[in-house]
Amino acid sequence: MSLEEPDDPLATPEQVGVSEGEVDYDALADLLGDTVVGRESHVNAEGFVVRPDEVQDALFALRNEAGFDHCSCVTAQEYDDRYESIYHLKKYDDPTQEVSVVVPTPKDDPVSQTAEPVYRTADWHEREAYDLVGIDYEGHPDMRRILLPETWQGHPLSQDFSGEEPQVVTLREHANPLQEDHRGEDDTDTMFLNIGPHHPATHGVLHIETVLDGEQVADLDPDIGYLHRCEEQMCQQGTYRHQIMPYPDRWDYISAGILNEWAYARAAEDMADIEVPEYAQVVRTMSAELCRIASHMLALATFALDIYGDFTAIFMYAIRDREVVQDILEDLTGQRLMFNYLRLGGVAWDLPEPREEFFEKIRDFLDELPERLGEYHDMITSNEILQMRTVDTGVLPPEEAKSYGATGPVARGSGIDYDLRRDDPYGYYPELDWDVVTEDGCDNFARLLCRMREVEQSARIIEQCVDLLEDWPEDEREIQSNVPRTLRPDPDTEIYRAVEGAKGELGIYMRSDGTDKPARFKIRSPCFSNLQTLPVMSEGEYIPDMIASLGSLDIVLGEVDR
């Protein structure tokens, strides 16, 4: 089978082997034909094992003929006898329809065909796989390290890596890549400009290599990795039951702690078949939406600061409202940032006493929120300067957003109606009345509006949860199910599960080896995939527009680099 890429890279003229709510994996096997050499059963989906030199044929078939247009994650790992890449595929229209493409490569020649021509998001995911595990992807447009320096020796997640290996290189390796200033043969006026990594508008330690043609951005390359902490390896060294849960708070460390914890909890609970009591699901849902509001308030504050430098009013107003949310979360969890509140099977403890005062504090915040949002719209969305800087700048077409795996407000700001809380239900969300917010502008302004309107929806969810919790019978307030002290899933149990984080799809892949610690722990960061869209949004525009586009992505480098 050999498939040429069509003019419309996301065209799906005929859906093969799928129907509403289910996947016919036998029909998909027929579609893939001789590219398939084996099948695996993962907890979330069937996996098709394909030859390393036929990856693109398999992926083009699944995307174009079966409608799997979302490559949500790429996992790389090393076994005793092989290396392996897993492409976790979903559909933007129905993320419950999943399939995995498993690509084994021999230990002595870990080379696999790149998936980048099929899914643009595979560019960074495969570079990370090469950097940390050591798999090479043939035909990749930029096969170099992404998180670690180019001079790094070895691959940290490979079995033979030694942490004591000296990372000493000659001064020659650190030479200025530009050497001396020079003009090209065609005497162009292009100029290379470094933005960051130490600049407040980069929202963290992000280095943006920019080429300017006059005042316009001709080329742009985000350089990440300055904050890499190898969180995946640390989780692989912790036990499922107790030692992993404190880490997720530290990925998106400024706002989304409980949302991060829920991503791990959902994966581990489904992997070990753990039920969560209904009462605990309501508490989780309420606390997660409080975290979403806190995250969006900070995004709003910093975006206004990026756009027209308003620190006194808008930034401090948003931080004021965020502080109220953090006070509520501190009452609930005991901490303001690193909550460590969720437990496998439920939550750590019940709501604070007296419950009436806790509920009153939440209701006071919710009662004041509409007026607060009205103030933001008066000062922000109707501001002429902000409109000039954001309307029709940073345009991200829907087809580009899908190809890069964008999710969250970045995707919904491009009109993509995709939200895992509704489309892949978990927690108590299916029982509540709320709406998914989308905007069709595809620009910086649309992404801003998405977050502001999502705050309103989060408030609706929180209010309904408070109503439920107030009336919940005292003798039925079960905060945690009976979970074994030590969890040991069956060997080679594999799962990929995701939740709707504040910034998009936050997913976890885990593989068990029969012990109480995961053999492989992979984090699918929404910020990682969303940041890849920056060149699409910025090329051909001006530097101030690029700064606005970066701010509209609402990235946190601790989650990008992990």
Automatic annotation (TrEMBL):
What NCBIfam families has UniProt attached to this entry?
PRK06075.1
Among InterPro entries, the record links this protein to:
NADH_Q_OxRdtase_suD, NADH_quin_OxRdtase_su_C/D-like, NADH_UbQ_OxRdtase_30kDa_su, NADH_UbQ_OxRdtase_CS, NDH1_su_D/H, NiFe-Hase_large
Q: Which GO terms describe its molecular function?
A: NAD binding; NADH dehydrogenase (ubiquinone) activity; oxidoreductase activity, acting on NAD(P)H; quinone binding
Coiled-coil stretches: none
Q: Does the keyword Transmembrane apply?
A: no
The species this protein was found in: Halosimplex pelagicum
Q: In this protein, which residues make up the domain named NADH-quinone oxidoreductase subunit D?
A: 312-562
Where in or outside the cell it occurs: the entry states: Cell membrane
Keyword field = Cell membrane, Membrane, Multifunctional enzyme, NAD, Oxidoreductase, Transport
Q: Which family does it belong to?
A: In the C-terminal section; belongs to the complex I 49 kDa subunit family.
Q: What is this protein identified as?
A: NADH-quinone oxidoreductase subunit D
Reactions catalysed, semicolon-separated, are: a quinone + NADH + 5 H(+)(in) = a quinol + NAD(+) + 4 H(+)(out)
NADH:ubiquinone oxidoreductase 30kDa subunit domain sequence ranges: 49-166
Q: Describe the subunit structure.
A: NDH-1 is composed of 13 different subunits. Subunits NuoB, CD, E, F, and G constitute the peripheral sector of the complex.
| Bilayer-spanning residue ranges | none
Q: Which GO terms describe its cellular component?
A: plasma membrane
